[in-house]
Design a protein that fits this description.
Number of strands: 17
Radius of gyration: 43 Å
CATH architecture of the largest domain: Alpha-Beta Barrel
Strand order of the largest sheet: 8-9-11-12-13-14-15-16
Bound molecules: ligand C2E, magnesium ion
Structural class: alpha/beta
Distance between the termini: 88 Å
Helix content: 55-70%
Number of domains: 3
Length: 625
Amino acid sequence: MMLNIANIWNIIKVMGCQSMKMSQTWTKRLMHNTPKAVIVLSALSLSMNLANSVSSFLGYAFALAFAGLIFAAIIVNPLWLKYVMAAAAYIAFFNTLPELSFDKLISVIYLSLVLLAFLLPSPIPVIITTCYYLYFIPTYSSVVEGEMIRTIVIGVIINMILYSLLAFYFRNLKKENEINRKLNGQLNEAFGKLEHMAYYDTLTKLPNRELLKKRMVEQLFSDSKVAVLFLDLDHFKNVNDMMGHNAGDQMLQHVAAHLTEEVGHCCFIARYAGDEFVLLFPYQVQEEIGELAKHLIHSFHMPFQIEQKHIYTTPSIGISLYPGDSRDVDTLIQYADKAMYDVKRGEKNGFCFFSAIENEELLLQIKLENDLRSALSKEEFVIHYQPLVEMSTGEIRGFEALVRWTHPELGQIMPGAFIPLAEQTGVIVELGEWVLEEACKQVRSWQRAGNPNLTLAVNISIRQFKSSCFESTVLRILKKTGFDPSLLELEVTESMMQNLSEMSLILGELKRRGVKISIDDFGTGYSSLSVLRHLPVDFLKIDRSFTRELTADTSTASIIKLIVDIGHSINLEVICEGIENQEEMDFLLQYGCRLGQGFYFHRPASADEIGSLLSSKDSQGKIAN
Ligand code: C2E
Ligand code: MG
Ligand code: MG
């Protein structure tokens, strides 16, 4: 019942509002059109008055001329022409006056002043016309009493003042209207621009994420079937890292233009974020989507010209379907994104439909992402340490800190499963700081316990590296833990080393304090030797994928030898990762590689296990001192 009354009240309010709005618009229209109506009516009645009052042929001719000219003056637009026409009309009008009776004269006097006041935006025509009346009225003194003439003259003067003020008022009103119109125009333009800014991406000029979602809501409410294509550029990060952000921006602009040209006619294209684009494609049968995706992938076979260089890029596309996969906008995007990641995990440069079976994996991913945020405060992370070994003697030279996550439900999770998530969510900055501090503390305690030269290698992610206070954080931790900076090695990846100037700047102070830098997973990214020569790098860590092939593939063996030789020639120490058997170690020793890390020597182990290992090794003299 209450609900019904509330509903009725709402309906009344809505109707009330609507009728208020309607009456407001009608009042506005009426006010806007009143001057026009007054002009037309007074011109009409003045013309009819004259036609009724004149009797000679000439009088009719002037009355007709007045009617024609005054309506022309009403219609014409340039103001000067309006004045000319009105002046001509009034000359004709004055010529009819001698034929008018005194009564008629009085009625036309007021009408003519009203007409002028409304028609011309100036009091001067009213004043001139009144002056003419003041000169003309006394000519009636032979037929009208002097008293009457005086009264009329006074009336005319008062009217002149009133109508002059009215004309003056109208002039200002017109000016104000003009200004308002201009302001309205500017406001509309500004609103348009604001709306554009809110809904379009400034870099690529494509619709942004907001407009995409708005459009999806609109489109999904209609009955059509829509495919959501989530397109991400493969290795775009390398363009940014190697050629700088300007080139990256240009690349995105080229890609946006390319997409518009290729599929703009059938798809709604939006820039979702970074190098991610979302396309909405209304379809009839699923084959059409496959065709479209293939066409898109094929269309990227041509290079983009950026800063006089030909740069190739390829897209990975994930697809979700409305209404099949979901009816919810965010879920559809999330599913398409997930499918895109499946492509990335595989070969890249392909397309893939979202599979509901994999939804569970996605849910797990979402769960991990959520749990990750609180894992640090819940102290769920632990650090394992893997020894770095002097291969010829088996001596432990130092340790690499490798983080593990002990999830309360899922057990131990390896970094490969959560570091990318931590990077995506930004948790890595805090986590990395924790790892560094914790590992410094731990290794420092082993150093104090009789192994003073033990080194510590810590993995640093690009997100950490780019965080504003990276350098000061490292220095603070070194100071707090009393760790010797020259025994600390920061492991960065090759792609992070491409931006030479930025890298040198961030590392400058750390290097001055003696901190070492090593390039991790060397050989898997893009490195140019000149980059290595110019950067303050101390170690190269050959990726374990090379070590794995070392004994089976002669070309891999030659590559490793080459890397070791080049490293030594530019004074870099080369470390080989992932050594799993003696054969591999023998090869590497033969090639001149001194330092190694791998299961053959030691698996990563907890601090306690390493503590025991150290004390047993200590007794055997197997630790570098
Ligand atoms: P990484 O820095 O290249 O670390 C070496 C990885 O190789 C470790 O995997 C280690 O357990 C594994 N490994 C060592 N020797 C062998 C071997 O003989 N055979 C095989 N098959 N594997 C070996 P893990 O601990 O799973 O770490 C994987 C990656 O996760 C690391 O690769 C590193 O990039 C990243 N990571 C680990 N901890 C952190 C961290 O605290 N911060 C950051 N940013 N990344 C981390
Ligand atoms: Mg590493
Ligand atoms: Mg590595």
